[in-house]
């Protein structure tokens, strides 16, 4: 899943080397924390959060573990 997030986010940002994806697993959920260069945060969120919502939709659809919910947080 980290590879999928990396593939989606890289073309959107100006500093692809600064992308850091951290996985935090809980009993009933998985949270992916995206740490980006400060200049790139707005580009990944998009107007009114449209790009972030689309990324979350893709990650939720690609979730192999249907028992656990998947969350994506952009830091």
Topology record:
Blueprint: H1 2-9, E1 20-25, E2 29-35, H2 41-45, H3 50-61, E3 69-74
Parallel strand pairs: 2-3
Antiparallel strand pairs: 1-2
Summarize the structure.
The chain has three helices and three strands, in the order αββααβ. With 75 residues, it is of the alpha+beta class.
Describe this structure in words.
By secondary structure, this protein is an alpha+beta fold. It is built from 3 helices and 3 strands, in the order αββααβ. The protein has helices at 2-9, 41-45, 50-61; strands at residues 20-25, 29-35, 69-74. It starts with a helix and ends with a strand.
The side-by-side strand order for the widest beta sheet comes to 1-2-3
Q: Helical amount among residues, as a percent range?
A: 25-40%
Mean pLDDT, to the nearest integer, reads 92
Following the backbone from N to C, one meets helices and strands in this order, namely HEEHHE
Describe the global form: globular
Which labels suit this protein?
33% helix, 3-stranded mixed sheet, 3 strands, globular, 3 helices, 75 residues, alpha+beta
């Amino acid at each position: 899943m980290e590879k999928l997030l990396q593939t989606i986010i890289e073309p959107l940002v100006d500093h692809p080397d600064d992308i850091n994806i951290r996985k935090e697993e809980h009993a009933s959920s998985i949270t992916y924390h995206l740490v980006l260069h400060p200049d790139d945060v707005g580009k990944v969120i998009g107007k009114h959060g449209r790009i972030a919502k689309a990324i979350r939709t893709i990650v939720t659809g690609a979730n192999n573990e249907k028992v656990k919910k998947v969350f994506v947080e952009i830091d």
